[in-house]
Amino acid sequence: MADLKAAFNDFCDKGSEITSANVVKLFKKANLFGKNCTSNSVDIAFSKVKTDKKKKNINFEEFKALIKEMSASYGKDHKKSAEDAEQEMITKVAGTKNVAQGTKQSATGGVDRMTDTTKYTGAHKERFDEDGKGKGLAGRENLAANDGYVGNYKGKDTFDEKH
Hints:
Layout: H1 2-11, E1 18-19, H2 20-29, H3 39-49, E2 57-58, H4 60-78, H5 82-94, H6 110-115, H7 159-162
Antiparallel strand pairs: 1-2
């Protein structure tokens, strides 16, 4: 039971209560889902075992009741009795850790192809020098003058001549 409590606490957001979404995540990581034991059935059982219907979380005692409630559908998936299914579920949940999974780098090499400036063509090619380093603002075709005049004003720089 200590391992079950540790796994429960590992998936709790804060405090000692767990949400329905985290129970689904825990069951998914423990490989408990099948044809009858689904995330929908977990949500339904979650609502059944909640003692306070206004709360969105359940405590550890209610979590144990949830496992007991779900053992029938898990047993149906694995052709086991509810008691055997409950023990197997407890064992699987107790061995589950909440480990974050990161995004893996693409194995196709697309990043190398996209960052190789020698393969750029057209207007994009002009933004890099011979070494492949970016020219920054100088590499852009349309730079803003920032001289205070609008684009097509014909009398630019003539103000001082008249006065």
